[in-house]
Design goal:
Elements (H helix, E strand, L loop, with lengths): L1 E3 L1 H8 L6 H10 L5 E4 H13 L3 H10 L2 E4 L6 H11 L3 H13 L2 E3 L3 H9 L4 E2 L15
Parallel strand pairs: 1-2, 1-4, 2-3, 4-5
Helix pairs in contact: 1-2, 1-3, 3-4, 5-6
Length: 141
């Protein structure tokens, strides 16, 4: 299971986002993994679609991708606060990282600071698909 940060979900469907292709490649590469995102992250993703009356469309896309949306529980508060206090993360970033640490094998994010903090505490980060996606079929050699 891998946790998706808001910037990855936003970029996945925004063709004008500078990380759109990277989001598509990463999500395609991990299509067999289970995806999870916190409800706070989903709210972050939906701000622009709500302004433009596209929220239902985005929710259907996220559902079609198979993303499990999980709540932030009372017992998550101390861990989230600790990430904010010790690493100067904003609450949405701390929520994403905390959720990943509690539920997942890795965090997918394009946020450089969040990735740096996650790696510093020893949590795996996915920020791009492997370069070796191209492969030759054995019979083509």
């Amino acid at each position: 299971m891998i946790t998706l940060d808001a910037n990855v979900l936003i970029a996945r469907w925004d063709q004008f986002d500078s990380t759109h292709e990277r989001a598509v490649e990463v999500l395609d590469h991990h299509e067999w993994d289970e995806f999870i995102t916190p409800a706070v992250t989903l709210a972050e993703v939906l701000v622009r679609p709500v302004r433009r009356a596209w929220a239902d469309q985005y929710l259907r896309r996220i559902d079609a991708l198979g993303v499990l949306v999980v709540p932030v529980e009372d017992d998550d508060a101390a861990g989230i606060a600790s990430l904010c206090a010790h690493h100067r993360l904003a609450i949405p970033d701390a929520v994403a990282l905390h959720t990943a640490m509690m539920t997942s094998d890795a965090l997918v994010t394009f946020d450089a600071k969040l990735a740096r903090v996650a790696r510093a505490i020893g949590f795996p980060v996915i920020d791009r698909a492997p370069d070796d996606l191209e492969w030759d079929a054995p019979w083509a050699a």
